[in-house]
Amino acid sequence: MSGRIIETEACIAEGLACLIRAESRFSRALELTGPPPLRRRPDGFAALAEAIVSQQLSVASADAILRRMRVAGLVEEGAILRAEEAELRACGLSGPKIRYLRALAAAGIDYHRLRSAPDEEVIATLTEITGIGRWTAEIYAMFSLGRADVFAAGDLALQEAARMLFRLPARPPERQLREMAAPWSPWRGVAARLLWAYYRVCKQREGIR
Q1: Which of 34, 69, 148, 177 could serve as 74's disulfide partner, Cβ 3.0–4.6 Å?
Q2: Out of 3.40.640.10, 3.40.50.1820, 3.90.1150.10, 1.10.1670.40, which CATH number does the structure's domain 9-38+149-205 have?
Q3: What is the C-alpha to C-alpha distance for residues 90 and 69, in angstroms, rounded to an integer?
Q4: Contact 72, 91 (CB under 8 A)
C-alpha cells in the first residue's frame, strides 16, 4: 500500500509542523516563503507525456509543443501510436521524444493501480519505460499521486536550496541529499515543496529570474 497522500493545504501544514520539529532550519525557510503550494496535478498518460515533452526545454517552448499536440488531437496513447512521425515532428517533437512518447503509449501502464502501489513500485514501474528517469518518476509520484514521502533528490534546485539553507560548502549531489533527507520522513515531499519555495525566494533576492 502507498503511504500518506497529500490532498489539501491541511496536509502541507501538518507536514511542515513535523518537519520543523525535526529540523529547526525549516522554520527559518518557512518564515521567508510562507506555506508552499499544494501543487497537485492529474495523474495518467497525459501527465507523463507532458513531463517527457518538457524535458530540457523552457516552459514557453514546452507549452507551445503541448498546445500543438492538443490541437492535433495527439494527447492519448492510441493517437500517439497511430500518428505518423511527420505529424509528431510537426508539433515540434524531436526524434528521441517521439520514441519516448511511443514507448510510454505502448507500455500499457495501469494508472489506476499505481494510485495505491508503494512508492518504490511506482518509481520502478515508470523508470522501466524508455525516456523516464528517476527524477520524472518521482515528480509524478509527488504531484500527480500526492505521495508525501517521495523526494526528488536529483533535482538541481533542491540541491541548491539545501546548500543555501544548510550553509553547505557545495551543492550536495543526489546521494548526499537523499541521506540528508532521510530524517525528514514521512514528510519528505513537503520538505521538497518548502525547499523549492526557498530556492525561488533566495534566487529572486539575488536578482536571478
Answers
A1: 69
A2: 1.10.1670.40
A3: 9
A4: yes
Contact 151, 178 (CB under 8 A): yes
155 as an active site residue: the answer is yes
pLDDT digits (tens, 9 = 90+) for 158-182: 999 999 999 999 999 999 999 999 9
**Which cell numbers in the block locate residue 22?**
525535526
**Among all chains, which residue has been given the C-alpha cell 518548502?**
194
Write the secondary structure of the chain as one string of H (helix), E (strand) and C (coil): CCCCECCCHHHHHHHHHHHHHHCCHHHHHHHHHCCCCCCCCCCCHHHHHHHHHHCCCCHHHHHHHHHHHHHCCCCCHHHHHHCCHHHHHHCCCCHHHHHHHHHHHHCCCCHHHHCCCCHHHHHHHHHCCCCCCHHHHHHHHHHHCCECCCCCCCCHHHHHHHHHHCCCCCCCCHHHHHHHHHHHCCCHHHHHHHHHHHHHHHHHHCCCC
pLDDT computed for residue 209 by the predictor: 31
In this prediction, residues 34-62 reach a mean pLDDT of 92
Q: Is the pLDDT of residue 68 over 70?
A: yes
Tell me, what's the pLDDT at 207?
42
